[in-house]
Task: structure prediction
Amino acid sequence: MRVLILSFLSNDNETHKKILGELDKACTAKGNQVDIKNGNLESDTLRTTGYDYIAVVVQASPLFGAKVPEKLPFIMAQCGTVTGKKGCALVVKRGFSSEKMCTKVMYYMEKEGMKLDYFDVILNADHAPSVGRKIG
Result:
């Protein structure tokens, strides 16, 4: 299965790099072909049509509230067909609103017709492999 891990995490943060690496290793170990794309940088050239499964990874807001990355609705609506595809919403824990952020990400994904089969809050890099095994 071709899996897209659509990340809205910072490229400069070592913890985020480690989390994405662990997600990639765990998902690849299941026999999936995994591509990791940065939604903030590659939104103009990204095409989601060739993927069977899309996992969206975002970081929760710093303290309260849940503001979805501004490129997420654009990518879901404009970067290829996502209707009927399976996917999951993953949120890296930060502050008190991780569950609320997860709900908002799921809303934007389901709004475009995706079928979500999994969602979770990633606590840290050590928790990422167990989350990655459920992708796909």
About this structure: The CA atoms of residues 22 and 129 lie 5 Å apart.
